[in-house]
Specification:
It holds the Pfam family Acid_PPase. With 219 residues, this protein is α/β, with parallel strands linked by helices. The protein is built from six helices and eight strands. The longest helix has 15 residues.
């Protein structure tokens, strides 16, 4: 069954991401240990607090001038979880690639949301409007099916080995990608700084990458 929404989309405090400038750099991004070459994110209940194929009635349109939220046909609004903007921006600054791997049955709705939602760099009124989330992803695999297929295609498109991939997802069944060599961090309430810290720690331990390597942070 679909996860219940804890509050109406239009009032939930978890559906607007904070500007990247307000999120301290994740500690694991600034230590001397290696980092994955790519961070891959599920979408539903990982980057935003709903399933776009069951909780959203298209078409979507912007809900605010800054692009922090979108609204569906009934006026229900949603956006990214709080830490998403900062995590995406800081990861790109460290030279990591970003990917999306979603098995949603409404890929067109998911794509529309990613094209509309922006990643704010500073507080409202500070500098230009942030880039769209869509533009920050290096690879997107959004369609129904076994996520091992998604990762096979990510490997083919990026040329990266599975062992260089760290995946964040809210569904335990998708742990099957670890049979390929991918490290998956299971998240419960959306991706956060803390979840990324734990995920990077798991990736380092799983791959024996616990010592400093050549190059900046091993990336």
């Amino acid at each position: 069954m679909p996860k219940p929404l804890t509050a109406p989309l239009s009032t939930s405090p978890t559906t607007t991401t904070s500007p990247a400038s307000t999120l301290p750099s994740t500690a694991c991004f600034s230590d001397t240990l290696p980092l994955p070459k790519i961070l891959v994110f599920d979408l539903d209940y990982t980057l935003w607090p709903l399933w776009v194929d069951t909780h959203v009635s298209p078409p979507l349109k912007p809900a605010d001038a800054a692009g922090l939220t979108v609204q569906d046909r009934h006026g229900e609004k949603f956006g990214f979880y709080r830490d998403v903007a900062g995590l995406m921006v800081h990861a790109k600054e460290k030279g990591m690639m970003l990917g999306a791997a979603s098995r949603t049955s409404a890929p067109d709705v998911a794509e529309r949301a990613l094209r509309l939602l922006t990643v704010p760099l500073g507080e409202a009124g500070e500098g230009p409007k942030g880039p769209t989330a869509w533009s920050l992803f290096d690879v997107l695999e959004i369609y129904p099916g076994d996520k091992k297929v998604h990762f096979e295609r990510i490997r083919k498109k990026t040329g990266l080995p599975f062992e260089e991939m760290l995946f964040f997802d809210d569904e335990r069944r998708n742990k099957n990608v670890e049979s390929l060599g991918v490290t998956m961090r299971l998240v419960r309430d959306g991706v956060t700084v803390e979840e990324v810290e734990k995920g990077v720690g798991e990736w380092r331990g799983r791959n024996g990458r616990v010592k400093a390597e050549g190059g900046e942070n091993g990336v």
